[in-house]
User: Which sequence fits this backbone?
């Protein structure tokens, strides 16, 4: 029960501070789930994020459900998802009320204008963690160039090219998985 | 909170009579089969409610979606909350929200059980490792686009906030929520001018 409540509150916090769509929830969930409660490792977290990109539904809800289910089964997934949407339901209805009464939501614009660039920076920080894990199997620097996983680097570069060529996220991620299997097997690397 | 607007008549053409059952199923199906979050789901919801059912008019739907995008949380869920409210009051909110979160809730709970078994397999780990590299590329691409958008504004404040927040979080490990709070206050004080929109 304590875990269920902790999941609800943790994700309510994420929901409250998550501004700017799916990717904005990434650094927040990471801080709560990996760094804060240690409910999962960075590796598991990146896997979830990857899977969330390939399954239907909003990324934030997907991640919350997955974390909740892993930590406390079905009640956990329900608690995490409910917690995630709880603050926004109240805020959205409040904003709707203001909109119909006054026709605009002035001061909130200022807050949002500052948070948009801030969120870019925070996603950047989370991105560093994910690249470190993918190429060096580490969560924190320092890393040395000699330890770089060259197969991983190759997959990353190929994927980046495919995305820039509008190959599509799901197809690119699927192909990166296939490449991983083929190349790590071919070079006899265990991961 | 009980706004007077609750009984405001629908703004749409009313091509198809409103029903909670239709609201639930149309939203559920869109949520269940759309990969890629709010920015993909919202146009589909709008097409359904505005163009196909005529439950709400285009301008109002756009305004409400803008509000959904500016509120914290999951954009698709926010859109369901606010559009559902407009079309069917608080019950409409509950129905649309449930229909939005139920499909990922079911899918991902199932996936999480498979994941535990999948992860134990050495070949599966190679696939996951490859996909970690793939998702790194996705993130680099997304970030590149986001930074470009900020730089193109050619304004000092957003860039300073972006750089300052990055340094604070990467080098000084300031907790994210503190960073967001400080930036929100800065925005409230300094960035209300429409040039920053």
Assistant:
């Amino acid at each position: 029960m304590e875990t269920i409540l902790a999941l609800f509150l943790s994700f309510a916090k994420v929901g409250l501070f998550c501004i700017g769509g799916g990717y904005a929830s990434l650094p927040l969930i990471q801080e709560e789930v990996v760094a804060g409660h240690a409910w999962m490792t960075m590796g598991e977290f990146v896997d979830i994020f990857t899977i969330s990109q390939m399954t239907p539904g909003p990324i934030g809800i997907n991640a919350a459900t997955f974390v909740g289910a892993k930590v406390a089964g079905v009640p956990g997934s329900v608690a995490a998802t409910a917690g995630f949407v709880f603050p926004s339901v109240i805020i959205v209805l409040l904003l709707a009320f203001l909109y119909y009464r006054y026709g605009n939501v002035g001061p909130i614009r200022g807050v949002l204008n500052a948070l948009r660039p801030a969120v870019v920076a925070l996603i950047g920080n989370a991105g560093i963690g994910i690249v470190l894990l993918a190429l060096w199997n580490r969560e924190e620097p320092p890393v040395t160039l000699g330890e770089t996983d060259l197969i991983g680097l190759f997959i990353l570069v190929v994927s980046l090219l495919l995305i820039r060529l509008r190959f599509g996220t799901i197809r690119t991620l699927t192909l990166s998985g296939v490449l991983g299997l083929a190349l790590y097997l071919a070079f006899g690397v265990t991961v | 909170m009980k706004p007077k607007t609750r009984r405001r008549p629908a703004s749409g053409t009313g091509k198809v009579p409103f029903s909670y059952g239709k609201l639930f199923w149309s939203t559920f199906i869109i949520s269940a089969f759309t990969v890629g979050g709010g920015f993909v789901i919202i146009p589909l919801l709008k097409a359904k409610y505005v163009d196909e059912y005529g439950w709400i008019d285009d301008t109002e739907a756009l305004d409400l979606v803008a509000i959904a995008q500016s509120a914290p949380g999951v954009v698709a869920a926010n859109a369901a909350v606010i559009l559902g409210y407009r079309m069917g009051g608080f019950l409409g909110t509950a129905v649309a929200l449930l229909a939005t979160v139920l499909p990922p809730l079911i899918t991902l709970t199932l996936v999480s059980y498979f994941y535990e078994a999948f992860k134990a397999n050495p070949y599966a780990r190679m696939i996951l490792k490859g996909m970690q590299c793939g998702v790194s590329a996705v993130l680099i691409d997304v970030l590149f686009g986001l930074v470009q958008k900020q730089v193109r504004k050619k304004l000092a404040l957003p860039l300073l906030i972006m750089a300052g927040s990055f340094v604070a979080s990467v080098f000084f490990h300031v907790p994210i929520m503190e960073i967001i709070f400080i930036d929100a206050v800065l925005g409230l004080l300094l960035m209300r001018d429409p040039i920053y929109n």
